[in-house]
Amino acid sequence: xxxxxxxxxxxxxxxxxxxxxxxxxxxxxxxxxxxxxxxxxxxxxxxxxxxxxxxxxxxxxxxxxxxxxxxxxxxxxxxxxxxxxxxxxxxxxxxxxxxxxxxxxxxxxxxxxxxxxxxxxxxxxxxxxxxxxxxxxxxxxxxxxxxxxxxxxxxxxxxxxxxxxxxxxxxxxxxxxxxxxxxxxxxxxxxxxxxxxxxxxxxxxxxxxxxxxxxxxxxxxxxxxxxxxxxxxxxxxxxxxxxxxxxxxxxxxxxxxxxxxxxxxxxxxxxxxxxxxxxxxxxxxxxxxxxxxxxxxxxxxxxxxxxxxxxxxxxxxxxxxxxxxxxxxxxxxxxxxxxxxxxxxxxxxxxxxxxxxxxxxxxxxxxxxxxxxxxxxxxxxxxxxxxxxxxxxxxxxxxxxxxxxxxxxxxxxxxxxxxxxxxxxxxxxxxxxxxxxxxxxxxxxxxxxxxxxxxxxxxxxxxxxxxxxxxxxxxxxxxxxxxxxxxxxxxxxxxxxxxxxxxxxxxxxxxxxxxxxxxxxxxxxxxxxxxxxxxxxxxxxxxxxxxxxxxxxxxxxxxxxxxxxxxxxxxxxxxxxxxxxxxxxxxxxxxxxxxxxxxxxxxxxxxxxxxxxxxxxxxxxxxxxxxxxxxxxxxxxxxxxxxxxxxxxxxxxxxxxxxxxxxxxxxxxxxxxxxxxxxxxxxxxxxxxxxxxxxxxxxxxxxxxxxxxxxxxxxxxxxxxxxxxxxxxxxxxxxxxxxxxxxxxxxxxxxxxxxxxxxxxxxxxxxxxxxxxxxxxxxxxxxxxxxxxxxxxxxxxxxxxxxxxxxxxxxxxxxxxxxxxxxxxxxxxxxxxxxxxxxxxxxxxxxxxxxx
Length: 852
Description:
By secondary structure, the chain is of the alpha+beta class. The chain has 25 helices and 26 strands.
């Protein structure tokens, strides 16, 4: 039987191409993302090992402040602690690290790098002790005064800077000019672990990007002792409030956020590989179903000459296993090539990485290859079992008749799946946050499977309706196309199922995106009453001088900045928004339920009504907070206001006076500036004056409310287009499935097509029949997919809304997108049917009539 299996594969190799392609694409996508993820992890691990290669231990504060976005920060440490570290036995060198962010301005006056599409730009202090310093000057000298900076080699190359050149840095005090005193490499790297860096003398770095008299941590070097021994000595002799850890542990801890991000990113991307394999399963099932139907007499003859059911079954399953293994191996090879391309793509959009060789681990291949094998074998098993059970005499004497649309078992299984899907869906709609999303997503998966199981029950009536226009317009060709689609409802349904999944996912994503954009527009219109907004393209903000200069214009009624600070309140990360208590009420539709914003002062805080209820706080109550810069602080509740999502998710408002007294000058920057003009002022007439001021700040952009909405919609569109790109793989596999099914169908009906030609049908009629059948299949899949997408789009919007405490999400159907998808289905159907139609029209009449 092994010889028979191999001979069967050779005989039907062309018919297996689509199966191999489906497995190859799905496995390749999964392997490629896993290899890329492992390579990125190795790159960052190597980077952080290099970063801290010169030191043995790190001394830092033991107080952790939870950030609002899940990132932990620590309190700064006094610079006087350096002397204490140096006094510990075994320590030969120690120096404090200042690390903050800034913006490097290119020679064209614009930011040299986009901080929103790549790593941050770091401001660091230059270590004077060579035992601690891992920077190597390749030109010039170290910074010796407040006007000097050293830049990394990559920044010098990208910006065209040389030693002695002026360079502008955008800081919280505004754009400031320095002189490039030196260019350096970091260990063997041209930049600071993949990020651009500017190095200043320690006092200047503390003033401009850190806090005077403070360090982020202190790096220590030991003398002939292990890192663990040095840490033990430091822990014994340093005062409370500090913590010592090994440099290895610090490097590992520093790499953790990157590893977590890479894990999430690769898992997200890999999910689309799963979808591709899931869609590919239908193609595999269809391929084997049609091929085995064509080989019914062949298999029956084997049974007649003595082959058992088990032997026939094992032969067919063996073909599937070989196909799955071969497709998986080819997919694995393709995945390695894909990983290389993906890494190059990341470099093209600004995520440059060290030239680490691809990390090819067994774990990246085991799951995809196993999945490919299992899906291929399981997909072929059902038609194989069905074929092995046909009595030899019946198989040799009659053609198979598809009665799947009358199957009681299919109906019962489909109903059970539908009920389970509804139960999971209802459970998801009654849950909140991530739980709701997972349950609704699970219900969507079950709905797709239910559509596959119950599909044959609806294909015949749908084919009759959708094929009616063609039957009227092209008569014989249209009538035959409609009957061909109805004749084998299981095959038509399974082919359409791949399209159902692709279209359903596209429609769902389009609805979620449309709802998000509509919600953002409504939010801006209903909550912001300013005429212009100045937004920041970095994460550091810009100098408050921008707002004060704009406010001085005669046509401007109010211009105020919003300052973002982070801390921990009630054990959770919190955003504290520094505002002008008077101006904020004029620029936002802010409803104060109790107290007054005017009473914030230097110690007051305003909280949302929800926060007041959840934390059982009222006017006059004390709110303890821990800030990264100022440590433990106490605020008094001076006002309670109804939440306004336009305040960027901030649950706590403090005055700018309070903000500036608790955050260092390097963090006293505005993340946004809102501008309201005098009544009767013409916005377009005033705009040039405002733009002239904004132009002085490289990371600032002036927008009116329409432009702000368009910008936010553009960010959503970018993410959605990324998802569409990933879904393209599933769409491609779906279309390959249509082509494959039609080709097999043409092959199966060779004699029938020959008879049609013999009784007078011309080539164009035969070709038209095949194309119209493809259109019917595409329309069935599209209509069912759109119905599912519309329903689950609404469900996902509702689920997302349940987890958005500060954001009202509204349901919006993108009519134009839905129309494009529908038209695209027809075009895709025509495209998928072209080659099979060409093959059908080119059949030799005599050969076709005489074929068996």
